[in-house]
Amino acid sequence: MAVQPPNSSPGKNIESPGARWQVPYFSMWTGQAISLLGSRVVAFAVIWWLTATSGSYTVLAMATLVGLLPEIILGPFVGVLVDRWNRRLVMMAADAGVALVSLLLAYLFWIEATEIWHIYLVLFTRSLIGSFHWPAFMASTALMVPDEHLTRINGLNQGVGGLINIIGPPLGALLMATISMAGIMMLDVLTAAIAIIPLLFIAVPQPRRAELEGEPSSYWAELRQGFDYIMNWRGLLALVALAVVIKIALTPAFSLMPLLVFDYFEGTAAQFGLMEAALGIGIIVGGLILAVWGGFKRRIFTSLLGIVLLGLGLLVLGLVPDTMFIAAVLLVFFMGLTTPIIDGPIMAILQGSVTPDMQGRVFALLTSLVSITSPIGLVIAGPVSDLVGIQFWFLISGVICIVVGCIFFFIPAITNIEENKGPETVHARAVKAAE
Fold first, then answer.
1. Long-range contacts of the stretch 238-244 (C-beta < 8 A, 24+)
2. Any idea where the domains of the chain sit in the sequence?
3. Greatest alpha-carbon span in the chain
4. Does the predicted model carry a pTM greater than 0.70?
5. For 98-145, how does the pLDDT look when each residue is reduced to its tens digit (9 = 90+)?
């Protein structure tokens, strides 16, 4: 277990957040939430444009794949930079990059020159930018929020994500019916600018980088240290294995949602928006439940329960006949409810257990390790769905979630992950020597 310097909470190597942590954190949080809403509207519009233009599972699968590639290929290298650079500036640059990409796509739609490969390129670029933004935001949250509030804050984040899923798709459908795609892209430019403004005026804590003997100084040494940190923590490796299996099952299932509505239920953009809104409402309810409840004392039990419940929802969705669209909407709501129950406690475990000077690397590496399995699921799901129908994959993914969730209740490396924290970092060893 890592030894922490004075005046720090577990996993933190700077002073603990003060009593007035809410003002700076929620100032940053509000701007980012508004930006996420703009991005959600754009994502809905772009995916439905691809669906209506091509009607092809291959096109949708390819769109998902190109969005994952930066996380898979560049994620490990990005994490080192996030730990080295000023995280506030990283978030500002990422939001500015999103605005520029949306501005370019707005121009292409305005001159009516948009092609499918343009969308692929935009999705790839936005994902590349996000691979910097997400670990910077999550690592900053761990330093700005007291450890005892991390699970509730993650529940709140999940709830707001659900609210965005409620507002975003119907708003996207409404805007597609009333304004041009170029106008929708400009909305994203505006919301990205709103996200930057609070960051101009607040201080985002940086982890202290010890300049002591033995501290790695080169980029490659720090990258290797990130890998070593994960490989020497059995609980984290077991958590990665759990996430890999679940990701293989879930990525194709959620990628198939537009075609489930379009082909199986013969629905419209409005019905797809309704299903997405139901998902969002479920996430809000689940986030509120987690924010109030806080989960089990052993946080990982909360996540495993959520995985089993999600599997049940997927399994039943795979059995719904094509005449019962409302039943499918209710099941998607239930699936959304389980999402914060799964993700919130896991993020709290990582934020509270991984030392801040490692969090950029750890979050980026974990994202890469988990995302690399998504193409496997997409490659398998395409032929399976074409051969036996879209709903069969929901049956398969449901069974996988239920079985894996139950098995991991009996794996000590997972159930004891919070007690058996990660290995000591160079900084922690230096602090111990100094003490």
1. 238/408, 238/411, 238/413, 238/414, 238/417, 239/300, 239/346, 239/349, 239/414, 239/417, 240/366, 240/369, 240/370, 242/307, 242/404, 242/408, 242/414, 243/366, 243/370, 244/369, 244/370, 244/373
2. 22-204+217-424
3. 69
4. no
5. 889 889 988 888 887 777 888 888 888 888 888 788 778 877 887 787
The answer to whether residues 137 and 93 touch, using CB atoms and an 8 Å cutoff, is no
Element (H, E) at 247: helix 234-255
DSSP type of residue 409: G
The CATH number of the domain covering residues in 22-204+217-424: 1.20.1250.20
Name the residue among 358, 345, 432 with its Cα closest to residue 11. 358
Contacts of 419 (CB under 8 A, 6+ apart): none
Q: How far apart are CA 327 and CA 369, in angstroms?
A: 35
Integer Cα distance of 297 and 150 in angstroms:
13
Backbone angles phi, psi at 227, to 5 degrees: -65, -45
Contact 249, 397 (CB under 8 A): yes
Structure-token match 């099952």, residue found: 249
Here the tokens at position 7 are 């005046």
- Between the two ends of the chain, the Cα-to-Cα distance in Å is 16
Q: Which of 23, 337, 24, 278 has the alpha carbon at shortest distance from 158?
A: 337
Note the pLDDT tens digit of each residue in 135-189. Answer: 788 778 877 877 777 777 777 777 777 677 677 777 887 888 788 888 888 888 8
For 111-137, the DSSP string reads TT---HHHHHHHHHHHHHHHHHHHHHH
- Chain centroid to Cα 66, Å, comes to 16
Query: Which has the closest alpha carbon to 61: 70, 52, 50, 53?
Result: 50
- Where b means 16+ CB within 10 Å and e means fewer, 162-198 reads bbbbbebbbbbbebbeeeebbebbbbbbebbbbbbeb
How many CA atoms, within 13 angstroms, populate the side-chain half-sphere of residue 283? 22
Q: How far, in Å, CA of 250 to CA of 257, rounded?
A: 11
